Amino acid sequence: MKYDLHCHTKEGSPDGSIKIFDFAAKLKSLGYSGMLVTDHDTYGGYRMWTRLKAQGKTIDDFYVLKGIEYDTRDGGHVIVVLPDDAKCPLLERRGLKLEHLARIVHIYGGIIGAAHPYGNGYFAITNTNLYKKNKNIIRLFDFIEGNNAGVTEEANWRAKRLAKRYNKPTTSGSDAHRAKQIGTAYTQFDNLITCNNDLIKAIKGQGEAKIISHFSTDRIVFMNPVIIQLGIIGYWIYNKFKVLTNTFARRRLIKDLKENHFTKK
């Protein structure tokens, strides 16, 4: 089965321009079996998909899975996948430290992956002080994004080398925010993947479902370096603002987790 495991939608990501249904329809036309929606710090795109399904607007033999790309305080962008029946509102409140995020996700039975680990700016784990002070922080991840169609070939090569060093499975994703980026990368599975639980088992190497290959196809034409840098700075300012405004809600949800979930483990 052919999946794009890094997708952004207009309904979920502030910098996304592709409606979830259009994204899925395009991937289906390109021979994909499904997609993992990974909007920035929200499940907005996936919620729209569930509403469309309730209205009978679906795509036959195509699976849309629920993920998120979380902005950590100190470890860059992290792809998070929880089991199908798990609900964690805290994941829509950016600003957790990487170690706290990993603990929470793993308690729920989910997985985390380093998105574009050698990408641009603070988005990438290897550019952070956390990684520079302790490279073994990579052990927290369950997988590494080894092919991201939005970064350079060298960055992807280094990501795959990092995954090999720490014996982590690698995934591929387009990281598409624009229509022209759809179909630029995919992850291939040798078994049926129809839900989050299947994906988690495959990435963990449990049972028969497993990743057998991952590729990038036609690559994105890169923007001017100055524009890229301005984008990084702009998103950094936006992210810091959102972390600040989410402080109260994040602390309240952490308290709820400690009282109602962590103490039961």
Plain-language structure description:
It is a single chain. The chain has 265 residues and is an alpha/beta fold. Helix content is 35%, strand content 18%. It contains 8 helices and 10 strands. It has helices at residues 20-29, 44-54, 98-107, 129-133, 153-165, 196-204, 225-245, 247-260, and strands spanning 2-7, 34-37, 63-66, 68-71, 77-81, 111-114, 143-148, 170-173, 185-189, 211-216. Strands 3-2-1-9-10 form a 5-stranded mixed β-sheet, with helices on both faces. A 5-stranded mixed β-sheet has the order 4-5-6-7-8. A hairpin with a 5-residue loop joins strand 4 and strand 5 (77-81). The protein is globular.
Overall body shape:
globular
Q: Beta-strand level of the residues, as a percent range?
A: 15-25%
Low-pLDDT runs of 5+ residues are none
Separation of the first and last Cα atoms = 35 Å
What gyration radius follows from the Cα positions, in whole Å?
17 Å
Strand order of the largest sheet: 3-2-1-9-10
Largest sheet: 5 strands, mixed
In total, how many beta strands?
10
Instruction: Give the integer mean of the pLDDT values.
Output: 87
Give the count of helical stretches. 8
- Judged by helices, strands and strand pairing, the structural class is alpha/beta
Order of helices and strands: EHEHEEEHEHEHEEHEHH
What fraction, in percent, of the residue positions are helical? 25-40%
